[in-house]
Write a structure and sequence with these properties.
Keywords: Acetylation, ATP-binding, Ligase, Magnesium, Metal-binding, Nucleotide-binding. By secondary structure, the chain is of the alpha/beta class. It has 20 helices and 30 strands. It has a seven-stranded mixed beta sheet with strand order 5-4-17-16-18-19-20, with helices on both faces. A five-stranded parallel beta sheet has the order 7-6-8-11-12, sandwiched between helices. The structure holds ligand 6R9.
Length: 656
Amino acid sequence: MSDETLSNLLKEDRRFEPPAEIADNANLKAEAYDRAKQDREAFWAEQAERLDWSQKWDRVLDWDDPPFAKWYVGGTLNAAYNCVDRHVEAGRGDKVALHWVGEPVADKRDITYAQLKDEVSQAANALVSLGVQTGDRVAIYLPMIPEAVVAMLACARIGAPHTVVFGGFSADALASRLEDCQAKVVITSDGGYRRGAPSALKPAVDEARAKAAGQGHTVEKVLVVRRTGQDVAWDDDVDVWWHDAVGAASTDHTPEAFDSEHPLYVMYTSGTTGKPKGILHTTGGYLTGASYTHWAVFDLKPETDVYWCSADIGWVTGHSYMVYGPLANGATQVMYEGTPDSPERGRWWQIIQDYGVTIFYTAPTAIRSFMKQGREIPDRFDMSSLRILGSVGEPINPEAYVWYRHVIGGDRTPVVDTWWQTETGSIMISPLPGVTAGKPGSAMTPIPGVSAEVVNEAGEPVPNGSGGYLVLTEPWPSMLRTIWGDDERFKDTYWSRFAKEGFYFAGDGAKKDDDGDIWVLGRVDDVMNVSGHRLSTTEIESALVSHPKVAEAAVVGAKDEDTGQAVCAFVILREEAGDGGDDIVAELRKHVRKEIGPIATPRQIMIVPELPKTRSGKIMRRLLRDVAEHREVGDVTTLADSSVMDLISQGIDSGK
Ligand code: 6R9
């Protein structure tokens, strides 16, 4: 990105100071930034002390063979012990770990740390009796039910790396992941509840298992949780009911201490092209990163907070901020099975009210869809318990940030816009709620211990006020260790662009404002070139979303004979705006021209009912580019709802 990049976002000048109460009692204070800079390794050693180690490390970081890092070398620990047993041993066994809320109303369950310890131990014993040994991979394909958390921790407890596959993924997607990591066992359920109805899961596992077998890989056992009670096909040689195997197992299980670098899990990224990448995370460094950031960025007070992260466990956010971070920290949290609008649109706010949620973490896509519905819905609930709000997954448009803070947070709550990736394992860039004066739309600064920069093509830091590539300049404990089975691809994908400098680069562009604060602009592949000007999709989208009739917008560059690429926008209107009126398109074009400049004016604006999104809420712009360039729409298998593309194409064909 060059200096020509337009700077609409940087015109944003609203600031939100931390509330005095949070500032005065903050877990991490401003001094931590300098302290971490002065001696990074000492700082990270201090953070690792948050965990219980069986054997302490003798070296914090081994970076002798970059980019292959080893953290807390020589140390040994058990991740499940750290997430469960130690809280029970410290006398907190009766504390609720999970307030689980099923989608069917009244289907709920509170699970204490002591109960969690028993269930995890039983599941660990059951896995061992099914033949799972340390180092074997176990795939987990489950809805958002407590067994999903139990299954992950049971794997961690016996040192069998898990790979959680999102329950909405197809049999094909599951099969390719089973093959890639050679999973020995799959843990699934008969089905789960989605929008008020049971939907099946087991048939996809049967199909995936058959596909994998066709490729020469045998899944030995399938452990099946009964959730909906629907009929399932059964293979007596392979299938085992969870309630039989786990229910009958002993609650005694002694956790073994594993090497700090023992593989904890493989998480496949939804990569838009090519074979999915199995991102490998290991034990000591990952758990340190997840625990430290969850404590620092959300200012967690385990005795009084009720924390809720709305992410699915099939996404890295569910791993770090629903399982490993909060449980390592002994938090009490909410886990919700269903969709935000089931049985009615106020469900999430009802849950916040019922459980007195104090910290809430969700994605911009959800916030924008609530904006679309209007504030009357959240206004019906008492959400005065909330004290901190978080955002993750995409750049949050300033308008969405302000709405979130205002309507959901009652103007009291800091909003932490947290930038990180599957690969980074934990939050890298974020405000600290008791320290940072937040700017809507900016992830602000790297957290203490993390070193990030925005650099130009030559790898040199750009001056304040300019844009470039977002890089991490020093290794960090929760960094990915490799791509499962493919060290070369690991080096090529993340470490080759700035090999000379030794920087990690994973595809995002960003800008530094005049204060040096970071504004993440999204993937560099999403940058457009219009008549030689480089424009970022995020900026134009944010300009559109700042129009009062617009709820959500996606912008792509489509080939154009005159300008190289032209701006095409897909826009969802707020419900109160109806169809927007006859001049809506002209009105929006004018708005963008005023907000950014003539160069950014969309050639085309299409009003659509929905946008194509991945399960983690990221807009799949490649599919919209297909529409804008009148091509057949490409692969839609990783969409949350694959019918969305039909809706969009039909609306456009009928001239709406
Ligand atoms: C945690 C997660 C990673 C990509 C990342 C970036 C985008 C995530 C963001 C953000 C701007 C934020 N992203 N958080 N962009 N501001 N606060 O989302 O992991 O699914 O691997 O996606 O998401 O583009 O590179 P993952």
